[in-house]
Amino acid sequence: MKVIGVVPARMAASRFPGKPLHLIHGRPMVEHVFLRAKMYSAWDRLVLATCDHEIEQFAKERGFQVIMTGDHHTRALDRVAEAVEKLDEDVEDDDVVVCVQGDEPMMRPDMIDAVVSPLRADPSIPATVLAMHITDESMWLNPDTVKIIHNEMGEVLYTSRAPLPFCKGEFSPAHMARRIYGIFAFRWQYLRAFTEHKETRLEKLESCDSNRILDMPFRQHIAPYSYVESFSVDSPSDVQLVEKHMESDEYWGLYK
Prior knowledge:
- The chain is an alpha/beta fold and 256 residues long.
- It has a single domain (3-132, 181-203, 212-255), classed as Spore Coat Polysaccharide Biosynthesis Protein SpsA, Chain A (Alpha-Beta Complex), CATH 3.90.550.
- Helix content is 30%, strand content 22%.
- It has helices at residues 29-38, 53-62, 76-85, 109-121, 137-141, 188-196, 201-206, 237-246, 252-255; strands at residues 3-9, 23-24, 27-28, 45-50, 66-68, 96-100, 127-133, 147-150, 156-160, 178-187, 220-225.
- The chain is globular, with a radius of gyration of 17 Å.
- The relative contact order is 0.18.
């Protein structure tokens, strides 16, 4: 079983244009993501996928393998699938493709292991998503944070930007709310099926790829992950938060 990693990035992000190349501690955000992803030791391939020549040029200067994709994609997973199709090697149905979102500059390599390990252990699992515990109310209320509702078997039932589960409107860490952290793993046959399915109503309403799977004949499973101080960049205001916490982050210390 091969494990192929793809970091999708595009300049035309609606909430933060130019986000992938925005500097965080002097380095473009997508460089943080790629270098941290490289620390995962079990890749067979790791590539950057983009439709923008600025990002392509940056990747080539850094020696990162980059694959150009179409500029029509609005969802990261569709861009990832196109990149895999353009690889210069065969990808089998049961090989694993990991999407590492380009706006996770504080990601940790063990997060990749967390989404891949269930697919190694159980051949019946088609796809996983990293599900991090929510420990404070502000994150639970924040619409930039996509919350996950799942059943007792760990299958994702719904994802929303609303504060879920409702908890009678009163947040507590004991409610075990979880959020999507931008690392997804799919067996190739299921990612291919995902991209062949048209965008769905709930996917568009919540602006979340995972809701497309609700209308498909397979389920995504959570890969639980305990809370750590690791913040996504959804808007320019998040950069200062990331820079503050990255100063004490052990992985930043490995490549700064």
